[in-house]
TrEMBL record:
Residues 283-397 form the Moybdenum cofactor oxidoreductase dimerisation domain. It comes from the Bacteria. The keyword Oxidoreductase applies. PANTHER family: SULFITE OXIDASE, MITOCHONDRIAL, SULFITE REDUCTASE. This is Sulfane dehydrogenase subunit SoxC. Its cofactor is Mo-molybdopterin. The keyword Transmembrane helix does not apply. It comes from Hydrogenophaga palleronii. Residues 97-259 form the Oxidoreductase molybdopterin-binding domain. Keywords: Metal-binding, Molybdenum, Oxidoreductase. SUPFAM superfamilies: E set domains (SSF81296), Oxidoreductase molybdopterin-binding domain (SSF56524).
Length: 412
């Protein structure tokens, strides 16, 4: 058969050549028959490509979802469509308190001043000549999953809508320690006030020691220059710390001996505990996981079918050590498989094969990090924080699979 088909293909080529020359060749009939059996894309050459690639038009349903509930736009990653651990740049979640500034790189600079021996100014050209490092890390908004923390009844929404203020990318940039050491730290230097060049000058005070250890001035995300949405042309990146400290459109670092108590940190990012005490400068995002498939608003089509339960786990304090999955609402747990690579402060993919019986089932995942920190149940999380608190919500996410196959968010 192979030889036969090959001959027909040759005949077709002759035919197409003849058509181009304006004459009808001998292979015309055979080629006609063949074209009728081939998909259109194999009969005629396809369309032109574009200079900067785009996803297939057939994937147009895979989009970030917009929420304006908090008064500023929050774009959420559709985690239920993500496979593997890396979020495509076009789907990275985004939070903009004052819009997305359009910054021309030749007009942008990063200044370092305050308790330093030599104040410095870095334009893009200068920064690009420094040695860079690349690291795969998640980034999560402190307010991710707020609806599950606050809503008295579980909202029937997709995973992306419920918990999509988290993404994972490879970040490339200059370790901030290189720049701070070049500026030379004066005695008494303890904190750095980090400011963005957007309207409202989003700013946070961060402890110097941690910045020297971990911070990057990130310039690239998954191999391309940061997108405007992620802080083009540069942002601070602090692995494992709450989203808002990762100041986008970064333009100023002031080394100080004390925190500045900026409007952002005293207003938005303090956390009231159940006993009335207030937690401030709670930087780390805690261990968390979600089942991405099956997840909210999906439907299982085949009762008694085989399904792979798959999900993502991450911890702001280190690597994921273990993920357990329950299919009976937390009565029993099974250890899921972790997929390599299991990286420090990055998404880790886990999976577990599952045979659905067609009965109602409640699926849950519970992650433990390398420091032994375990994801709390919702009731445990609620006990720790005040009624109206919602930042740093990392409780176990539960999905109910109904007998008709529909999957919905539930509290368990
Ligand atoms: N300059 C500036 N930086 C900012 C913000 C902002 O509004 N302005 N939003 C912060 C918040 S609240 C979060 S969660 C992260 C989100 O980063 P992303 O938009 O790249 O996902 O950026 C932080 N950095
Ligand atoms: Mo955020």
């Amino acid at each position: 058969m192979f030889v036969e088909d090959n001959r027909v293909a040759m005949a077709r080529r002759t035919f197409l050549g003849a058509m181009a020359a304006g004459v009808t060749g001998a292979g015309a009939q055979a080629a006609d028959k063949l074209s009728a059996r081939l998909p259109a894309a194999m009969v005629q050459p396809g369309g032109a490509d574009v200079p900067y690639g785009q996803p297939s038009s057939h994937e147009a349903h895979v989009q970030r979802t917009l929420s304006t509930q908090s008064g500023f736009p929050v774009w959420r990653t559709p985690l239920q469509h993500q496979h593997g651990i890396v979020t495509p740049n076009g789907l990275h979640f985004a939070v903009h308190h004052n819009g997305v500034p359009d910054i021309a790189p030749e007009r942008h600079a990063l200044r370092i001043h305050g308790l330093v021996n030599k104040p410095l100014r870095f334009d893009l050209e200068r920064l690009m000549r420094y040695p860079m490092v690349s690291r795969v890390h998640f980034l999560e908004c402190a307010g991710n999953s707020a609806a599950n923390a606050l809503s008295p009844t579980a909202l029937d929404e997709s995973l992306g809508e419920l918990a999509g203020e988290v993404s994972c990318a490879e970040w490339t940039g200059v370790p901030l320690s290189y720049l701070l050491h070049e500026a030379g730290l004066k005695e008494g230097a303890q904190w750095v006030v980090v400011e963005g060049a957007d309207a409202g000058s989003h700013s946070r005070s961060l402890p110097l020691e941690a910045l020297l250890k971990d911070a990057l001035v990130a310039l690239f995300q998954n191999g391309e220059r940061l997108r405007p949405s992620q802080g083009y042309p540069m942002r601070l990146f602090m692995p494992g710390w709450e989203g808002n400290v990762n100041v986008k459109w970064l333009h100023r670092l002031e080394v100080t001996d004390r925190p500045a108590f900026t409007k952002d940190e005293s207003g938005l990012y303090t956390q009231v505990l159940a006993d009335g005490r207030i937690e401030r400068f709670a930087f780390h995002m805690e261990v968390k996981s979600v089942i991405t498939n099956p997840s909210g608003r999906q439907t299982l089509l085949e009762p008694h079918g085989f399904y792979e339960i798959s999900g993502l786990a991450w911890s702001g304090r280190g690597r994921i050590a273990r993920v357990e999955v329950s299919v009976d609402g937390g009565r029993s747990w099974v250890v899921a498989q972790l997929h390599a690579p299991v990286l420090d402060r990055a998404f880790t993919r886990f999976s577990l094969p599952w045979q659905w019986t067609g009965q109602s089932a409640v699926l849950m995942s519970r992650a433990t990090d390398e420091h032994g920190k375990v994801q709390p149940l919702r009731s445990e999380w609620k006990r720790r924080y005040a009624m109206h608190s919602f930042n740093h919500y990392n409780a176990v996410q539960a999905w109910r699979v109904r007998t008709d196959g529909r999957v919905e968010n539930v509290y368990a």
